[in-house]
Amino acid sequence: MALSPDEVRHVARLARLALTDDEVAELAPQLSTILGYAEQVGDLAADDVEPTTHPFALTDVMRPDEARPSLTAAQVLAGAPAVEQDRFAVPRIVAEEG
Description:
Oligomer: single chain
Mean pLDDT: 88
Order of helices and strands: HHHEE
Number of helices: 3
Largest sheet: 2 strands, antiparallel
Helix content: 25-40%
CATH architecture of the domain at 5-43: Orthogonal Bundle
Structural class: mainly alpha
Shape: flat
CATH class of the domain at 5-43: Mainly Alpha
Number of strands: 2
């Protein structure tokens, strides 16, 4: 599938890329080659292959959610440089509107 320069410019505009005429001329055959490879993949006789999302059969890969002993809030906040209302105090980075 050969892409025209106008099609390359259209794709570039969708990707918000500014291309010079030289870049368009250079990219057109490269993108056409890539599309040709994509067509070849689509032509493969894979009707008997079951669709997969992963090459290996996976079951639940998450560990069970079990309550375990952990630090108290006071222990966690003890290492903080600044604490305010039992929370980490951090500098404001977004101004409030109002």
